[in-house]
Model the fold of this input.
Amino acid sequence: MRITFIGGGTMGEAMIKCLLTQGVAAPQDIVVSDISPLRRELLSKEYGVSTLTDNGKATEAADLVILAVKPQNLSQATEEMLKADSLPPVAMVLSIVAGANLDSLCRGLKHPSVVRAMPNMPAQIGQGMTVWTATAEVSQKQRERVQTILGALGEEIYVENEKYLDMATALSGSGPAYVFLFIEAFIDAGVHIGLPRDIAQKLVLQTVLGSTHAVQETGKHPAELRNMVTSPGGTTAEALLRLERGGLRSLLLEAVTAAHDKAKHL
Done:
């Protein structure tokens, strides 16, 4: 399968790295079109893939075209592809461009077989969460290819209704930033009470990691696991009381809702 990337930025590179690492594609299967000579040189040297500056030429023999440009550069990229009239009729297009819905992508490309996906930042290390959907014209075989490709980035979930993509943007797309902020504050709290920063960081990171695995592996509701840690009148109960008084739940709800509203208007 010949894969063409339109855009070789951070997420495009992350996908290339994961596809090669997982053995989903070989360097000779991948072509990257990018306007930056520095990015082209880096990708060619680091991963052995072919690089071009011409979006039209890059898509000529593609089975799959991955749109990985910044939202503000999407119109220019699709116009160049249309002008070249080089997108094969049987090719599938997979877009990871934030805010670009299926209808606008199909109209912009004049092409019916389009997949829209929302990966998140941990995809850069193969631990991502990607939510995706597709037009009716994407065949079952092509959908299986998409699952394989997105699965190389971590976990993937297919949804029938495109509205869930904006919701995923607010939850899993922006979510790593919420988690990083929590980890940062958690470490700082440890330092505040007197722990050396390196010890506080190790304690926090393993606590977050272990707690996440506990939810995954036990299948228990987070509230049930929380109650298992919380002794009546103990230190955990006192700490949770302060978090509830501070409005942690409502603030998180407001944050995700605000991100969802923003995603709908991109």
